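So, can you check these tokens?
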Amino acid sequence: MFKFAVAIGMLCGFAGAAHAADPQFRGGYFPDPAPVVLRDTPKAFDWNRCYAGAQTGASLGKATSEIGKTDFFNAYFIKDLSTNMIGPIAGGQVGCNMVLNNNFLVGFEFEGIYQSKSETPCVTQVDPVTYCLKMRKKAEAFASARFGYTFGCGECGAGTLVYARLGVGYGRIDISGNINAISYVSSEIKDNTGYWGVGVYRPSWAQNYDVNTSRTSFAPVLGVGVERALNHQWTVRADISTMFGIQTEGDLNVMKIHFLNGAQGETLPPDLSQVKRNPRVGDVIPFKIKELETRLSMGVNRMF
């Protein structure tokens, strides 16, 4: 009995020493595990809203003009006059989106832009006719439907939109120009004034006058773009759109006469140019202009 009691005592002593040597067991508890942090699921961006914003970029166009024949103007060797029109743009847009099933989107948008774009090309018909037309474009407006698809962008789910647009554009072009014409036939009188060149046979007649007009037109618009959410209120976008099939017809009005051999409307001696008389202020020359215009823009939108 005595030996058994001694053995039990020794076992309890060893257990107590082990407990005292390990501080993890002091106080009779284990340390708490590290807390588990659960991340929130990204909130999907809401495209189903209206918006307003601003844009800037550049407009690139190619215009081709053709002037008709009158009894005081004839440039039968000149088929047309072409020029490239390039300039900066700035404007704004407003619109609304509606999200359909499976992340598809439809919307409608109005845009208005201001641009400073002008060119002054000149053409010459062999010898007797030279004319220059200055073409200027300032303001344009667009109305278009957008069709797109949305998908995720990391911290804001479904925060990227790719879209196509289809609509109509409205524009105005201002045209001013100068026409200078001389006879194909030189007279037997030598010029001693120095205007044509001393000792040179001068033309039997000469004209120099200004023309101008302003025209407006509507044309279809096609485009594509991408829009990206910065946060749940603001987006940025890049867009390329083309207004094609622009065709304008009208009259160039004779506004000012600088020089004529003879009076306004006076009959001219016949020559190869087939010009029969001098112009008068108020006369008109028919013309046509065809244009293709592409707009590249970057913009920002505020969602509401």
Remarks:
- The longest helix spans residues 2-21.
- Confidence is low (pLDDT under 50) at residues 1-8, 17-21.
